[in-house]
Design brief:
Layout (H helix, E strand, L loop, with lengths): L2 E4 L5 H10 L8 E5 L6 H5 L3 E4 L5 H7 L3 E6 L8 H15 L3 E7 L13 H12 L4 E7 L6 H5 L3 H4 L15 H13 L6 E4 L8 H12 L10 H10 L4 H15 L9 H6 L6 H13 L21 H12 L7 E2 L2 E9 L6 E7 L1 E3 L2 E5 L10 H8 L2 E6 L2 E9 L2 H14 L2 H9 L7 E6 L3
Parallel strand pairs: 1-2, 1-4, 2-3, 4-5, 5-6, 6-7
Antiparallel strand pairs: 8-9, 9-10, 9-13, 11-12, 12-15, 13-14, 14-15
């Protein structure tokens, strides 16, 4: 009997799936795929066979999938070359002798032309490749993650209301834990071959319903304030998000309010055998995290000073999760690993934190100030120029580093290395090229 392999072993969903599998399956039958196996040492210590592989490296996948019978393909990050990555995994699984591939897609309506930027078209492509591969398959279409509700409604919903694109569409979100349980069911049971499930949660809600639930939980009124899609995008840009990310979030929010996720199938409950967590239950347990500023435990910080969390809820949530778990969770961005850099604000001198792509060579780290291809340098770049002593956290390890801007042949050498790790980095630089040269900052161990 072959192994069960879960890709994305260091990501949220992949790690939760493996942890749940460990309660039902002997560890010698489990394998996990990771670009950086050192980030999954806790799973390896429990007996999971952690194998190195990269969605962009077909040969590495063929080797990693040797002896695997069933494989869970956790879909690649949005806004990356998902077609290449998904096709590589599926064809490598076929070549390595796997029998069954399970693919996590995003919920959609077959009768709708609505598209989520950077996701829907890639899902359709991957599903077609899988269906024509000769492998048996299961497609698991996910609703909005429950954990992402706070991203849509904003960190200041209690004070300023739930300001989202207008529309009364509903979504039945599901927690990652419940979706991981569905992954386990399909990986360990027969009878799911060549089937597509829509894993909607237990209770559908509009954003008006969410505002009403927060009112009940908080004890004071949380207003529902519908705005246009353009106003929503501008509100995201005002928080410092790159336009590409702001428009990405807008496409998801408008998909929710427009009814793209309104179908409630009951598939999730049937697969996992219990009633999934409802949005009301989740908000009651987690509403401070969703709508109030996080206060991180800075006792381990090597830089002293007042910490000011990012106004961007996604950045703030990822940093908090990464630091709280020593990099075991919140450890990826656009399909690649990240580090967390703590720095002083250029003008305020207060501590700021940001998660950035991990580019490391011989103990030196490089970070690219691409800002997603925007016309201006990201704020953190100005902070590093003004205050070059920073704290770098890579997994559980925190160290003081000195930042300097790479130039000339040194810069070109590092860019070539970075492009080999992240093909999309060159595209981001190209988008910014008409307005600026993207700086590459090197972080070297601080003296003393």
């Amino acid at each position: 009997m072959g192994k069960l392999l879960v890709t994305g072993a260091t990501g949220h969903l992949g790690r939760l799936t493996l942890q749940a599998l460990l309660t039902q399956v002997p560890p010698h039958r489990l394998a996990g795929l990771a670009r950086d196996p050192s980030r999954a040492t806790d799973l390896a210590e429990q007996g999971v066979d952690i194998r190195k592989g990269d969605y962009f490296d077909h040969d590495s996948l063929v080797e990693a999938f040797d002896g695997v019978d069933r494989l869970l393909l956790v879909s690649a990050e949005a806004l990356t070359d998902r077609d290449t990555q998904h096709a590589n995994v599926i064809t490598a699984a076929k070549q390595a002798g796997a029998q069954h591939v399970i693919f996590t897609a995003v919920q959609r309506r077959e009768d709708s032309d609505a598209r989520q930027i950077g996701v829907t078209d890639g899902d359709i492509f991957a599903e077609n490749v899988l269906k024509n591969s000769g492998l048996t398959y299961t497609i698991l279409r996910h609703p909005t993650f429950m954990e992402h509700l706070g991203v849509y409604i904003g960190a200041d919903a209690y004070d300023k209301g739930v300001r989202v694109p207008e529309g009364d569409g509903t979504v039945a979100p599901a927690t990652r834990h419940d979706l991981a349980a569905a992954n386990v069911a399909v990986l360990t049971q027969d009878g799911h071959e060549n089937t597509t499930y829509t894993l909607s949660g237990s209770e559908a809600a509009s954003f008006r319903d969410i505002a009403n639930a927060l009112t009940e939980i908080h004890g004071s009124e949380v207003l529902y304030l519908p705005i246009t899609a353009e106003e929503y995008t501008e509100s995201q840009l005002a928080q410092g998000l790159p336009r590409e990310v702001a428009e990405f979030l807008t496409s998801w929010a408008t998909a929710i309010t427009g009814g793209t996720f309104s179908e409630n199938t009951g598939d999730l409950e049937r697969l996992i055998g219990y009633r999934p967590t409802s949005y009301r239950e989740f908000l009651a347990q987690n509403h401070p995290r969703l709508t109030q500023t996080e206060t991180l435990d800075a006792t381990k910080d090597l830089l002293e000073g007042e910490y000011v969390p990012s106004p961007d809820p996604m950045t703030r949530e990822q940093v908090e999760l990464y630091e709280r778990t020593d990099g075991r969770e919140g450890a990826t961005m656009m399909g690649g690993p990240v580090v967390v850099v703590t720095m002083r604000g250029a003008r305020s001198g207060k501590l700021r934190k940001v998660a950035l792509m991990r580019i490391e060579r011989d103990g030196v780290y490089a970070i690219g100030a691409s800002a997603g291809g925007q016309a201006r340098h990201p704020n953190w770049f100005h902070n590093l120029v003004a205050h070059p002593i920073v704290q770098l956290q890579d997994g559980p390890d925190r160290r003081l580093m000195t930042a300097r801007v790479a130039e000339g042949p040194e810069r070109e050498s590092w860019l070539a290395y970075a492009d080999g790790l992240y093909p999309f980095f060159a595209d981001m630089r190209a988008r910014a090229a008409n307005d600026r040269e993207v700086p590459l900052v090197l972080l070297e161990p601080a003296e003393g």
